[in-house]
Amino acid sequence: MALFIPEWTRASGRQLQLKRVLNGLDEATVVRKPLREEDAAPELFIEHAQRGWLALAVVDTPFDGLDARQLFAVETRTAFDARLAAWRAALPDALPLLLVLWACSEDEVSVLAAQIDAQNVRLLSRERYLERGAAGLAALQRPLAADEQDALRTRFFPESSIPLPSVARRRFQRNNQAVLSGLFLDSQQEWASKLDLDLPDEQAHTVTDLSVRLVNGVAGSGKTLIALSRALLLAEMHPRERVLILIHNTPIVADIRERLHRARGSLPSNLEITTYSAWIHRQWRRLFGPFLAMPADPAYLPNLVRSLRTRWPDLKLAESQLIEEFDFLNEMLVTSEAEYMDTSRAGRGFSLRAKERREVWRLFEAVTEALQLAGLRMWSAVACEVCRAPSHCALERYEHILIDEAQFFAPSWFHTVKLALKPQGRLFLCADPNQGFMKSRLSWRNAGLDVAGRTKKLLRSYRTTQAILHSAGTLLARAVQADPEHYLEPDFTGMEEGAAPILIRVDSPQDAVDRAVNEIVELVTTRGLPLSTFLVIYGGDTPKQLLYRRLCAALGAKRVWWLNKDKKQPPEGYGPDYLRLANLETATGLEGGAVFLLGVEGLLNVEEGDAREADARKLYMAMTRASHRLVMLTTEPVPPDAQPLFRAG
Ligand SMILES: Nc1ncnc2c1ncn2[C@@H]1O[C@H](COP(=O)(O)OP(=O)(O)OP(=O)(O)O)[C@@H](O)[C@H]1O
């Protein structure tokens, strides 16, 4: 069956008849309806990679109103001629236009056909349209030149153009023929971006909880593009509705804003793109007042835990584990000891016996209370406090909330997001379970989201090469359980082969810094690559200040955008060319033509268990940031089974 973009959810009787025929077209066919009210737009466009294009318009005027010989039809006939001329003028000459004259018999259509001299127009009665069926439509389609297709889509479907300039190269080919122009979303992406645009009224009333959609896609499959494209479209279609995009990571938000600024200048005033953290702080202040205080000293909380835990001397967990568990309790919105005893801790990395759980709960209560007395809270408690506020009237509300990187959102975060949706508001999630999953193996259902039957999977990566994705995927598969909710198998069809990641063995973290900087300088000077091609990701023991200083010394003091330092904007504002530098923990969503990974050896050589899985996902995320060249610098030998996945540097 053909792919309808957008889906036809609200079809009238006439449209149902029209659709019955369209349904018979094969699945390589796309049936698009223009979203904008425009006189020169026919009702729909049919596209097929081989057969080409066909425009279709339905004309309701009866024969009496169209027949040029009829005395009283002058006005309606003139209007019809003007419309036809407008359609033809807007369409490429080579694109056939089919007019279905819904209210005319076949004989009447023959009379009218003789009166019309427009080029490349075919008239059919409703009866003939239904009779000829999908095969009749297919026979009318004609190929268009690439520039004509681009012009057509730019005019009638501008919302499907790619909203961000890419810093990575495009990787796969459409039908193994023409290389994608890179101007537009592919049909699956476009379909996802236009889901539920016209939820019918009856359905809207039956949506009891909320309307949610999930796009689950492998790294580089265009999830961020889809979210942006949809948000821009919604903001334009509904200028009085508020649209919010939330992303977990600060650097990717800054990066997107910079790229959007380059591509479009300003954003629509009803669209906001922000980090969850900035957003929830704002919501908290709206509910509780201006003073949202958290411990300023990073040692405050561990010290507090250390002093209070003496009441439970049998508790053997490290302070860091206890704090992690408190975060879990906050994120799961656990309200009582009994509830905690019933909560699944699957994937938590360490087990707890019932007695330990009880003690952890009591310590958690004691810590929370002590913080409260000091007017403080843990970061993870902010969302919780918003959820538990006596009234939510002061919250900002939105008609549409879109979440990118939803795999990193905790249940309490989703809860706050739902509270901020207006009645009948829509939630749109993009996630890659391969890159992590809510810090533990939770399901969407655990997070209070029913995505069954409302999930779209994207398995092809535009960003990276087969070789890089294969290496990253194989390392990940060593560690994760084959659970479809938490692992997506990429589809390599049509992707550029590329070369395996480069592995460089060095003696120390300082050597890794020197070598990476030298390699980058070499590529910049010998190949003339712009700095924006490069993304340097550091983890673990990398001396980050040294890395930053060396990069600045080699490339220019203001040419390095350290995303964890200059959090909002590049050092000299938007415009100049920058190399980007990011901490491993906050590199999600970013991309680079050439990516250098330092300090990730700890992720390769990990023990069995849940920590191994979390680390493997992190490494997968970091490796798949690269579109073309991936260089990994390590101070330790790579495990023998992983060696064939790399080439020596
Ligand atoms: N249809 C397309 N045509 C050309 N390039 C595309 C297309 N879709 C995505 N891309 C490019 O692929 C890269 C990855 O896209 P994007 O960042 O949206 O993917 P993602 O799924 O969010 O990735 P990740 O989850 O790994 O961060 C970008 O450079 C984007 O411009």
Question: Keyphrases for this structure?
Answer:
Rossmann fold; 649 residues; binds adenosine-5'-triphosphate; alpha/beta; 19 strands; single chain; 4 domains; six-stranded mixed β-sheet; seven-stranded parallel β-sheet
Structural features, described:
The protein has 649 residues and is of the alpha/beta class. The chain folds into 4 domains: 3-156; 164-286 and 390-458, Rossmann fold (3-Layer(aba) Sandwich), CATH 3.40.50; 300-378, no CATH class; 466-648, P-loop containing nucleotide triphosphate hydrolases (Rossmann fold), CATH 3.40.50.300. It has 22 helices and 19 strands. The strands form 3 sheets. The protein has a 7-stranded parallel β-sheet with strand order 15-16-14-17-18-13-19, covered by helices on one side. The longest helix is centred in the middle third of the chain and has 20 residues, at 354-373. Residues 162, 164, 166, 168, 170, 180, 182, 185-186, 189, 217, 219-225, 432, 462-463, 589, 591, 624 line the site of adenosine-5'-triphosphate.
Helices and strands in order, then pairings?
Blueprint: E1 3-5, H1 13-23, E2 29-32, E3 44-48, E4 52-59, H2 63-66, H3 74-90, E5 97-101, H4 106-115, E6 121-125, H5 126-140, H6 146-156, H7 187-193, H8 201-206, E7 211-217, H9 223-237, E8 243-247, H10 250-264, E9 271-275, H11 276-288, H12 300-308, H13 319-331, H14 337-342, H15 354-373, H16 381-388, E10 398-404, H17 411-419, E11 421-431, E12 455-458, H18 466-477, E13 502-505, H19 509-527, E14 534-538, H20 544-555, E15 560-562, E16 579-583, E17 592-598, H21 601-604, H22 610-623, E18 626-634, E19 647-648
Parallel strand pairs: 1-2, 4-5, 5-6, 7-11, 7-12, 8-9, 8-10, 10-11, 13-18, 13-19, 14-16, 14-17, 15-16, 17-18
Antiparallel strand pairs: 2-3, 3-4
Bound molecules: adenosine-5'-triphosphate (ATP).
Pfam families: UvrD-helicase
Organism: Massilia suwonensis
Domain UvrD-like helicase ATP-binding: 196-471
